[in-house]
Amino acid sequence: MGVGTNLKRLRSKTKFSQQEIADMLGIDRNTYTNWENESTDIKSQFIPKLAEIYEVSILDLFDNQKDTTYNNLENAELKDNSIGQKDIQQGIIINITDSEAAKVLAAQLEELIKNLKK
Predict the structure, then answer these.
(1) What's the CATH code of the domain at 28?
(2) Cα Rg of the chain (Å, integer)
(3) Which of 20, 59, 71, 114 could pair covalently with 16 via S-S, beta carbons 3.0-4.6 A apart?
(4) In terms of Cα–Cα distance, which of 27, 41, 26 is closest to 7?
(5) DSSP for residue 70
């Protein structure tokens, strides 16, 4: 299961339309549709915002498990550690297709953000 499948599943659970998600991200609906269909890669600057919208961790966006467990404590921590939109507009695009690599990177990024806030 790829990130596009996860996006579809999460959007279905939240009852948002593709247009509503696209509007929240400030992008065209076709761009979001292409992410769900996995015809284009998600730009890294949108990954934290997607996690925030769906109230999951960044890792959950890339996780290959069929069911994502929602944990309010993790969600609150994610919101506290979120990088502001202004901060990520000059972001780096990272294409991760391997779920293990995504897990490692997500853990490293979360640790880095925690250390930066200290």
Answers:
(1) 1.10.260.40
(2) 14
(3) 20
(4) 41
(5) P
pLDDT in tens, 17-66: 999 999 999 999 999 999 999 999 888 889 999 999 999 888 888 876 54
CA distance 7 to 50: 9
C-alpha angle with apex 31: 30 to 34, nearest 5 degrees? 85
Between CA 11 and CA 93 the distance in angstroms is 23
**Which of the 8 DSSP states describes residue 26?**
T
Average pLDDT over residues 86-113: 68
Exposure on the CB side of residue 9, measured as CA atoms within 13 A:
17
* Both tokens assigned to 69: 């467990």
Instruction: Give every CB contact of residue 43 below 8 A, 6+ residues apart in sequence.
Output: 91, 93
19 and 58 Cβ atoms separated by less than 8 Å: no
Residue 56's domain spans which residues? Answer: 3-117
Task: Report the domain count for the chain.
Answer: 1
Q: Which two tokens stand for residue 74?
A: 């993790």
